[in-house]
Each structure stands twice: as structure tokens, then as C-alpha cells.
Design goal:
478 residues, alpha+beta, 21 strands, 38% helix
Length: 478
């Protein structure tokens, strides 16, 4: 067996996991977990990327000797470097308000329909493209010689080598999903200098080796290679969906829910754009055709507002609340910003004429019912728009631990749900490294290994989907 360090950075925490891989064995253990706490400063909301890098170094020290390191993280955000490779300020957080009203300026040059046809990316106000247009109001981009997405920035600090990994680059809204290269026409029309980006890398490509200073800091013995993985955490998570065959949908659950299909080609129709589906790039020439849903962010923010009550007790209370009493649109951008989440959910229910949830248990049930309903809509819409039917829904990521959400998703979709693994992004990260080093074969073999070695839970749908159809119609105002 060989050992691989998977640096997996989420929006609220980071972790360094150690994967041990053999021909018929796959184990994952946590070496170190650390908080990811954004900081609000006078100029806006920023990532504390230096604290994240310190957490990575601490994690590598705790991991011990490994055969390779890979990094994945959330998408769209980036750091800017000057001509000497020094970071020009902390990266801006995607929830920062600087992109408000920017989309209309972009669409004046490249209409929304043309932008979708060229890049396949759904509209989200925080896409890198909109961030770059918004950044023109500061002089920082004028001093920048290089733009590195978050995992590429950390990889650069570890190795001294620069690259732009493709699956994460595809979330910038500057990549053509058909050519799997930059969309040069879109960038030119918007005045975005693509030379800011380092050369594209594919998952599995070598990304350098740990610098001598990093070896000293972590106590590791070199050389330790760094391997480019599917560095968008969702791409790594989808690579770790333990599916057999192609007739499956996936839901990557965590701060966000990413629900959709794995396809061989993008869906670039106007109907797809109107349904707000995105075409992001995945492993081995695949396309992640999915919809972004607000996810467990809604519950995380409520728990924070309530003073961090016991989650198990909250879920038990939620299980006792009548189903589908009140639902909200879990994809509504009104829930994007932090703060006052219980009140905002109550206000949305009041505005739609539904019973207003009052207790934490009632609010939690409203959130879980709303997420399951959003999962149902995404799975249904994806099948229709892509002409790709599914027999099962795979749930991976942090939501696997939430048995009530998994069961409600099965009920809403009218399909069996297979839940697991929880640390899907880290598993995908490890398996791409192992494949690059010849220990595993293609995606099908990776998925068979996961299915044989990891605990999975199956949830069968209960009853028919009529109450969910009625709730969906109610939410749509029908």
C-alpha cells in the first residue's frame, strides 16, 4: 500500500486526510482538521489564506511520510501575485458584495444567452468572471502578474511551481466545455487578460515537489511530489461516487448541495440556461451537469444564530414536525449572505402565505424539506434537459451523516438513495493521486474499489411523491 495526503478545503473547515491505497484496499484517516474562518475587514469579506496554509503545513506534519500530496478546495476564488510571486492581499470571499450589479455590465458586452452558449456555466453572481470585472474598481489587478485559484495558490507555496487545474478553471466562466480550453472570445470581449492564468493542468499531472523549506517545516523526507488532482472539491467528490454504470444522479452535500449528472458532453441549450444548470468539467473528459443549491449552509447559519445547540437533538425535534408544513426555495440568492437566517426563513414563509416556523425544530424541518424538494427538482430537471434517465441517486459528502435528509431526498425523488462516502472529495483526491502512480485504473475501477471498501447506506422511498409534487406547486405559486 502507498500513502497519499489529501488536502481538502471546504468553506467552513479544512482537513488533511491520509489515504492508504492498495490493489484491493482503500483506507482514509484524518490527520488534522482546522477552521476556515473568513474575516470581515473595512474593504469587505476576505479569506484568511495564510491561516489556511498554516493549517496545511500542520496537517502534513501530522500526516507523516507520504508518497504524494494533492489539494482540492471550493471554486471561483483566487489570489493575485506580483512579478516576484508575492501575494497581493488576502483573496476576496465569494460571498463579498463587490459583484452586486456587475452581471448587467457583463451582459451588455456578452449577452447572457451567448455567455452560456460559450461557457456552459450557470449564472451565479460570484463566478470568477464577474469577480474579475468587479475588481477593475481597485488598482490591485493592475499590479498583478499572475492569478492562481485557491488550490493552485497553495500548491505554488508548497512547490514554487504554478499551474491552473482544469476542473477548477471550468468554474471561472472563462472555459469552453466543448474544447476544454479557455474561451478566448469571451475573455477578449470582456477585456480579461488570460495571460494572468498559469498554464492549464489536467488531474493526475505532476505539480512539482515540496520545497526544501516545506520539508523542514513538516519534517518530511524528500522528494515528496505534489500531484494535480480534480482540484475543485465537487469534481473530486463526483469522482468518488461509488456508482455502477451510468444511470445515476449525484448530490454532493455540504455547505452547498450540487445535484446533477455525469455526462459525456455539455448541455448548452437555452432551456438549460433558463433552468440554471451548469456544465463544469470532470475527470476523464466528463462534464458535471448540475445545479447549485444553497445546501446545509441554511442549517449551519441557523445553528450559529441559535448558539450552537446539539445537532442530534435538533434533527430529532425536526423528525417530529409534520412533513412539508412550510418550504422555501433553497436556491434563492436571498439566502446567500450570512446572518439572521432563522428570521429570513420565517420571512420567506410568511411572504408565501405558509405557516411560519417558530421553534428551532420547526425551522430545521423546513430547511430539510426544502433541501429535499430542491434535490427532487434538480434531479428531475437534469434528466429531462440532458435526456439521461437515472435509477438511483448517490448522496456523498457531509450530508451523508444526516439520515433524515437522505430519507427525505429518497422520498422526494421517488428513487433509492445510496449514501456514502462522507469524505468523498478527499477520497476522489486520493484516488486520482493513486491512479497517477499506477495503483488503480479507470474511473470504473476507482468506483468499484470505493463500493467494496466503504460503508454505504441505502434509503428506499416511502409512499408516492404526490405530497412533494403538491409542495413544489405551492412553492411555484401554482
Amino acid at each position: 500500500m502507498k500513502s497519499y495526503a489529501a488536502v481538502d478545503l471546504g468553506a467552513s473547515s479544512g482537513r488533511v486526510m491520509v489515504g492508504r491505497v492498495g490493489r484491493h484496499e482503500l483506507e482514509l484517516t484524518e490527520a488534522h482538521r482546522f477552521a476556515n474562518r473568513p474575516v470581515r475587514v473595512p474593504e469587505g469579506l476576505r479569506w484568511d489564506v495564510l491561516a489556511l496554509y498554516a493549517g496545511v503545513l500542520d496537517g502534513l506534519r501530522a500526516a507523516g511520510q507520504v508518497d504524494s500530496v494533492g489539494i482540492d478546495s471550493w471554486a471561483v476564488d483566487y489570489g493575485l501575485l506580483d512579478a516576484d510571486g508575492a501575494l497581493l492581499g488576502n483573496p476576496v470571499h465569494y460571498r463579498d458584495g463587490r459583484t452586486e450589479g456587475v452581471a448587467e455590465k457583463v451582459w451588455a458586452n456578452v449577452p447572457a444567452a451567448e455567455l452560456y452558449a460559450a461557457t456552459g456555466l450557470q449564472y451565479a453572481p460570484f463566478n470568477t468572471l464577474y469577480q474579475l470585472v468587479a475588481a477593475r474598481s481597485s488598482d490591485q489587478p493592475g499590479h498583478a502578474e499572475r492569478l492562481l485559484l485557491i488550490p493552485d495558490l497553495l500548491s505554488y507555496w508548497l512547490t514554487g511551481e504554478q499551474g491552473t487545474e482544469l476542473t477548477n478553471a471550468s468554474t471561472t466562466q472563462l472555459v469552453d466545455p466543448r474544447t476544454r480550453d479557455w474561451s478566448y472570445d469571451v475573455a477578449a470581449r470582456l477585456g480579461i487578460d488570460l495571460s494572468l492564468f498559469a498554464p492549464l493542468r489536467q488531474p493526475g499531472d505532476p505539480a512539482g515537489a515540496l520545497r526544501p523549506e516545506v520539508l523542514d517545516e513538516t519534517g518530511l523526507t524528500g522528494p515528496v511530489p505534489v500531484t494535480a488532482v480534480a482540484s475543485h472539491d465537487t469534481a473530486s467528490a463526483v469522482a468518488a461516487v461509488p456508482a455502477s454504470g451510468e444511470r445515476f444522479a449525484y448530490i454532493c452535500t455540504g455547505t452547498w448541495s450540487l445535484a446533477g449528472l455525469e455526462l459525456d458532453a455539455p448541455v448548452l441549450t437555452e432551456e438549460s440556461r433558463a433552468a440554471n444548470f451548469t456544465n463544469e468539467l470532470g475527470l476523464d473528459g466528463t462534464v458535471r451537469y448540475l445545479r447549485n443549491i444553497m445546501g446545509l449552509w441554511l442549517l449551519q447559519e441557523c445553528v450559529r444564530a441559535w448558539g450552537e445547540p446539539d445537532l442530534g437533538e435538533l434533527l430529532q425535534a425536526a423528525a417530529g414536525v409534520p412533513a412539508l408544513r412550510s418550504v422555501v426555495d433553497a436556491g434563492d440568492a436571498a439566502f446567500l449572505a450570512p446572518g439572521r437566517m432563522p428570521e429570513r426563513i420565517a420571512e420567506a414563509c410568511r411572504a408565501s402565505g405558509q405557516p411560519v416556523p417558530e421553534s428551532p425544530g420547526e425551522v430545521t424541518r423546513c430547511i430539510l424539506d426544502s433541501l429535499a424538494l430542491a434535490h427532487r427538482r434538480a434531479v428531475e430537471d437534469a434528466q429531462r434537459l440532458a435526456g439521461h434517465d437515472v435509477d438511483v441517486v448517490h448522496v456523498v459528502g457531509g450530508g451523508v451523516r444526516n439520515a433524515l435528509l437522505c430519507q427525505l431526498t429518497a422520498d422526494a425523488c421517488g428513487l433509492p438513495v445510496v449514501a456514502g462516502p462522507t469524505e468523498a472529495a478527499a477520497f476522489g483526491n486520493v484516488l486520482v493521486q493513486a491512479r497517477a502512480h499506477g495503483l488503480v485504473g479507470d474511473r470504473a475501477e476507482m468506483r468499484r474499489l470505493l463500493g467494496r471498501t466503504q460503508p454505504l447506506t441505502r434509503y428506499e422511498p416511502r409512499g408516492d411523491t404526490a405530497p412533494w409534487r403538491a409542495a413544489q406547486a405551492r412553492l411555484a405559486g401554482a
